[in-house]
Write a structure and sequence with these properties.
The protein is an alpha/beta fold. It has 4 helices and 5 strands; from the N terminus they run E-E-E-H-E-H-E-H-H. It starts with a strand and ends with a helix.
């Protein structure tokens, strides 16, 4: 499972059982920490999640941002509540990539706004899955 954690919304994506493809899920409108964690818990049980990838919002030069500190605090609480491994994944440019993808699909500005978070989560998860698959194919040196 991948999460694109924002202040108001949380994009969510789940992988298939073979860990090959990422599929988006409906965007979670954030309420409070307890409700948000419970919604993630329910999705993780329903989808037999074994690991959560969380997009880490860094500045373009790689430094942490104020948002990345908020995301880290949320991830810490999520890890305590769900007892699942958490992996941080560099999410720089994923929102831009998601916006471009939605624009190419011909969606209006309002339609893109409604879809951007879940598409960003899907891109984060797909990048993570692709990197894992590539690492497994690399011969040992």
């Amino acid at each position: 499972m991948a999460l694109d954690v924002g202040d108001k919304n949380m994009g969510i994506a789940i992988s298939d059982a073979l860990l090959l493809t990422a599929q988006s899920r409906p965007t979670l409108r954030r309420k409070d920490l307890k409700s948000d964690i419970e919604a993630i818990r329910q999705l993780s049980v329903e989808n037999e999640v074994h690991e959560i990838v969380i997009g880490q919002p860094l500045h373009m030069d790689g430094r942490e941002s104020p948002q990345s500190q908020k995301v880290a605090r949320f991830a810490e609480e999520l890890k305590k509540a769900l007892d699942l491994p958490i992996v941080f994944w560099d999410e720089r440019l994923t929102s831009f990539e998601a916006e471009q993808h939605l624009q190419e699909m011909g969606l209006s500005w309002r339609q893109r706004r409604a879809q951007i978070d879940k598409i960003a989560a899907m891109i984060i998860l797909q990048n993570y899955l692709d990197t894992r698959a590539y690492a497994k194919r690399e011969p040992a040196t």
